[in-house]
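Bumping with the actual sequence this time:
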Amino acid sequence: MFYNLVYQSFCADCSVLNILKYVTLRSICSFFVSFLLVLLFGSKFISLLAKVQKNGQPIRDDGPESHLKTKVGTPTMGGVIIIASVIIGSLLFADLTNINVWMCISVILGFGAIGAIDDFCKIKKYDYHGISGKKKFALQASVAAVCVYATTMYSCFPESTYVFFPLFKNFYIDLGGLFVVWAILVIVGSSNAVNLTDGLDGLAMGPVIMSAICFAVISYLVGNSIFAEYLKIQYILGMSEVCVFLGSLIGACLGFTWFNAPPAKIFMGDTGSIAIGGALGFVAIITKQELIYPIVGGIFVLETISVILQVGYYKLTKKRIFLMAPIHHHFEKKGWSEPTVVFRFWIISIVLCIFALATLKIR
C-alpha cells in the first residue's frame, strides 16, 4: 500500500523515493515493521488472551509429565498477532499489483482461520483434540486448491504446472491438471508438519525462521533474471516480490520468539503453526522449489515421519519405536532438557538450510 501509493505516485517528483524500487530494502522494512508490531503489542495481547482464556491451552494428558506442571494456564492463539503483523508489513511494502503477494496473504489468512477454529474448539471444550482430522484436511485442501488454481491461472510463467528436480538443469515433469493435487499435498503436508513440530517452547520458531530466510533468498534469485540464468534455475517474473512477504513473516516470528522462548508466556497454537506451515508450502510451490523443501524443512519432515512410523508400527506390533512421538518428546523422555532439544533442533535446521541453498549452484 505504502509502496503503491507513495512510490508509484510521487517517484517522478521526488527522486529519493527511487530507493523504494529495491525489493531488498522493502523486505527489510517489512521485517522491522512486523518485528516491532509484535514486540510493542505482544505483552498487551498476552494479557488480553489470558483474561479471555481462563485455563489457557489444554495440555495433552499423555504427554511428558513436566508439561502438566509448567505449561498449564499458558494462553494460546498467539498466531493471531503473527498473522496480523505479517499482513500489515506485506500490505505496506509489497507491490500489491503482484498476484503472488495476494495469494501468499490469502494462504496465511485462510489457514490461520482454520487453525483459529481448531484452537477455539479446544479452548471452549478444554480438550486438546479440537476439530476432527478429516474436517481440518478438507478445509486446508479447499483453501490450498483455490489459491494454487488462481496462481496457476494468472501466472505469467508458462511452466507453472511443471515440477523441477534439484541438481539437474532440464529434468522436470509436467503434471498438467494433476499439479493442483500435487500442490495441495505439499501445502497441507507442510501445514500439518509445522503443527506437529510446535510442541516445545520456541521449537518451531527456529526452523520456521530459517526456512523463511532460505525461501526469501530463493524467491529473490528466482525473480532475478541475471541470477536465475547464472544458477540455471527457473526465472519467474515478479517472484522476488515474495521476499517482502517472507521478510514480514521472519520479523513477526522473531518478535513472537521473544515471548515464546522458554518458559513461554504464550503459544502460537494451531492458528499460527497451521498458517505458517501452509504459507511456507505455498511459497515452495510458486518458486518451483517444492522438492528442495524437504531439505529446507528437514526438521518438519523428521517430526512427521516419527509420528507416521510410531502410529504404523504400533498398529502392526502393539509396540513403540520411540518413547513418545513426535520425536522431540522422545528426546525429552531420554532426559534432554527442553532448551537442549530446542537449540539442537535449531542447529540442525540451520545446517539443512545452508545445504539446501548450496544445491542451487549444483546443476
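The C-alpha cells above came from a reply further down the thread. The chain has one domain: 24-291.
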